[in-house]
Amino acid sequence: MVLNERDFADEAVKICAFLMAESARTAPKSKGIDDLEIIYIPKERIEEIARKMEEFASEDKDFIRDANSLRKAKGILVLGIKGRKPIGVNCGACGFSSCADFEKAERKEKKFMGPNCVFKLIDLGIALGSAVKMSAILGVDTRIMYRVAIAVKALGIMKSDVMFAIPVASEGKNPFFDRLTQR
């Protein structure tokens, strides 16, 4: 049997997303403490997430643009962090004078929960970079997208304090760039 590349593209993208997840998991973490959450959302759930994104368009029209972009994905990798637990260096970057004061702070949620230990947020950024580095090595199309993560959180799919989504595709041209802003 002969297969056309398009016949196995969805499966290939899924395998790439899994390898991206492992690259993120093994990325360096502050003090070696791993509070990273990683999930893969299959193609079948993309429309649900895109519709949820459109519900936020009254506050930011770019949710529509990004929802339309997301619809071209074959899957979504989502990385999140629980940022409540400080690493104990009393650096003050969170805005508090000590980790003990940070831990006593009232937590509030807007789109994400905060405040967060800055080192946990840096860990998330390094993990995101490791994941998209892997996507570049493997030649799959990706983009780190904040608005997709907002919808994932609103749907209760993932519970992390802060998260970002990485839609994944394999097309002749990356479908997540050259996006038109909605008016």
Automatic annotation (TrEMBL):
Keyword Iron-sulfur among record annotations: yes
Superkingdom assignment: Archaea
Recorded GO MF terms: 4 iron, 4 sulfur cluster binding; metal ion binding
Residue ranges constituting the 4Fe-4S domain according to the UniProt record: 71-134
Ranges annotated as spanning the membrane: none
Keyword 4Fe-4S assigned: yes
Entry keywords, A to Z: 4Fe-4S, Iron, Iron-sulfur, Metal-binding
Signal sequence range: none
PANTHER family: 4FE-4S DOMAIN-CONTAINING PROTEIN, CONSERVED PROTEIN
Designated name of the protein: 4Fe-4S domain-containing protein
Species of the source: Archaeoglobus fulgidus
